[in-house]
């Protein structure tokens, strides 16, 4: 059971974003990016907010100070930064937790809009103690709880724990590889959350499946990349050599947010009843 103080905190935090939600009946797009170029394209396409990361191949890690600084110089939309010191699981050592604290302090001073966090205990529950410390450090910035939620043992207990933390939103794929596969759980999370927290579906959203996801979940914010391959401008290419491991990602093609794709997504948001 949530006590009155935690419920009050949750409702106060949710109220911080109600103004953004009520300014328009149109749902909001958050664009997941890993470069300044993608931030610019997200804004040009009509995205309301970006989640700035590095290493999207690993699900996103904390962006560099230089990337954050230049992004804030180049765009006027809201910039939230993920706070994740490495890929892999969400069970962090004391040193990793200290890194997260330092990153929040540094990025907060730079003027970002919010942070994106997620920490778990070994038993698959939300690490509420450490999460609360990061949230207190981040305030008054917005706080989003990321897809660490999707690998928790009990989604409804985890939802209650996250609401009690007082964060603005929860990013989730419904504990499945993609939103489309997790759509039933997401719809139930939206129903249970009510006005206590925003449930933001994200993972595998495309122009083709977005209308169905909107109808079946009733969510008001959506998280996607909207990227397209952009060929490298390198003239000389040694295509025998790879900097990455195992899967050998292409060295002479980049994934960059496509402004036209974002415009199409925004059009879909406006058109779907």
What does this 3D model show about the protein?
By secondary structure, the protein is an alpha/beta fold. The protein is built from nine helices and ten strands. Strands 7-6-5-4-3-2-1-8 form an eight-stranded parallel beta sheet. A two-stranded antiparallel ribbon has the order 9-10. Strand 5 (142-145), helix 6 (155-165) and strand 6 form a beta-alpha-beta unit. Helix 2 (36-45) packs parallel to helix 9 (259-271) and helix 4 packs parallel to helix 5. The longest helix has 19 residues, at 4-22. It is globular, with a radius of gyration of 18 Å. The model is unreliable at 1-23 (pLDDT under 50).
The strand count comes to: 10
Which CATH architecture is right? Alpha-Beta Barrel
What would you call the shape? globular
- In round numbers, the mean pLDDT is 89
Q: Percent helix among the residues? A: 40-55%
Question: What is the spatial order of strands in the main beta sheet?
Answer: 7-6-5-4-3-2-1-8
Q: What proportion of the residues form beta strands (DSSP E)?
A: 15-25%
Instruction: Write down the secondary-structure element order.
Output: HEHEHEHEHEHEHEHEEEH
Which structural class should the secondary elements be placed in?
Answer: alpha/beta
The major pleated sheet works out as:
8 strands, parallel
Please tell me the total number of domains.
1
List the helices and strands and how they pair.
Blueprint (H helix, E strand, L loop, with lengths): L3 H19 L5 E6 L2 H10 L3 E4 L12 H10 L3 E5 L11 H17 L3 E4 L10 H11 L3 E4 L9 H11 L3 E4 L10 H11 L4 E4 L8 H8 L3 E4 L2 E5 L21 E5 L1 H13 L2
Parallel strand pairs: 1-2, 1-8, 2-3, 3-4, 4-5, 5-6, 6-7
Antiparallel strand pairs: 9-10
